[in-house]
Design goal:
Structural class: alpha/beta
Number of strands: 12
Bound molecules: adenosine-5'-triphosphate, nickel (II) ion
CATH superfamily of one domain: P-loop containing nucleotide triphosphate hydrolases
CATH topology of one domain: Rossmann fold
CATH class of one domain: Alpha Beta
Radius of gyration: 20 Å
Helix content: 25-40%
């Protein structure tokens, strides 16, 4: 029997209202038709380049989008619709964010008191000591201010804060930039441990290579659209479906840094067709129309002429 998913997102779209001249309002679509599922114990990576809408996805799930945004589609969390109200209730408890910037830490407060939120009783102290210990953060760390932490330590403080809530879903927004390879692997290892403990982990990153070191499933995101879902193992096995996923893979150092010409369209640019069409070697005229996200070979793809499909 399949386990009930922890998070199930169906056809999520997010757009912004922008005010033009006078009273003109423009609706700027940023995320379109995004779907993904995370089961217990699973690490699902969402991989996309800068500006593709990754942080917005995280904020949409957590219910912390800015006031000028609109969200449509379906989000289920632990089998029930995740309304704004429920998101507020589960946030910081069953569902936690490990934020993109370490600026989320209060710069004027020592780490220990900050984590304990001012509580001083021995039980709370012991509980946090235990969690920090698990992340290799010694007692002296509690007396440090955020600016005294290394990048890797700051990340681990954020993870420790998240783990302390014993969450069912951990959303990690770009957790490794600025870290050297060893620190990055260590941080990712901690996310894998959280999954091994039964949580679902949504790992949001631009770094496909790092994502593949821990992700069971990978969802590839391009210009606000999910274009492929694959098993982590599909990449090394050469079993890719969408031409953009292929391009991402070919652009990795070990595969020769092969770039594709052109740039990703920005929000609101391009129609409802495949956002890669202007850059795609396999494009045909019909690629400019709406393209379904469909199952293919154990994954999903949003392409009319995928690799491994029938041409
Ligand atoms: N409040 C807003 N109003 C209008 N547009 C916005 C707003 N917030 C974000 N955007 C736009 O949405 C797009 C996606 O932003 P987002 O931060 O989700 O990207 P990202 O994939 O997380 O990028 P990065 O890798 O740089 O963190 C960007 O092009 C951004 O300009
Ligand atoms: Ni981001």
């Amino acid at each position: 029997m399949e386990l009930e998913p922890i998070l199930d997102v169906k056809e999520l779209s997010i757009s912004f209202t922008q005010y033009g001249r006078g009273t003109n309002q423009v609706l700027l679509p940023v995320i379109r038709d995004l779907s993904l599922t995370i089961g217990p114990g699973q690490v699902v990576a969402v991989v996309g380049s800068s500006g593709s809408g990754k942080s917005l996805l995280a904020h949409g799930i957590l219910g912390i989008l800015p006031y000028n945004s609109h969200m449509s589609g379906e989000i289920n969390f632990l089998g029930q619709p995740l309304t704004q109200r429920r998101a507020e209730q589960v946030r910081g408890k069953e569902m936690v964010l490990v934020p993109q910037g370490v600026t989320y830490l209060d710069p004027l407060m020592q780490v220990g008191p900050q984590l304990r939120k001012g509580k001083k009783d021995p039980q709370t102290r012991a509980r946090f000591r235990g969690v920090l210990d698990r992340y290799g953060l010694g007692e002296e760390v509690e007396t440090l201010y955020p600016f005294e932490l290394s990048g890797g330590m700051a990340r681990r403080v954020l993870i420790a804060t998240a783990a302390e809530a014993a969450p069912r879903l951990v959303i990690a927004d770009e957790p490794t930039p600025g870290l050297d390879a060893r620190a990055a692997r260590r941080v990712l290892g901690h996310f894998r441990e959280l999954a091994e403990g039964g949580a679902g982990v949504l790992l949001i990153t631009h770094d496909l290579e790092l994502a593949l070191t821990i992700a069971h499933r990978v969802t590839v995101f391009y210009a606000g659209v999910t274009i492929e879902e694959a098993d982590g193992a599909d990449f090394a096995a050469g079993k890719l479906r969408h031409p953009y996923t292929r391009a991402l893979w070919n652009a990795l150092p070990q595969n020769g840094f092969v770039p594709i010409p052109g740039a990703q369209p920005g929000p609101g640019e391009g129609g409802e067709g495949c956002p890669l069409a202007p850059r795609c070697p396999r494009r045909r005229p019909e690629c400019l129309g709406k393209i379904p996200y469909r199952p293919l070979d154990g994954g999903r793809v949003r392409c009319l002429y995928p690799e491994g499909g029938d041409l």
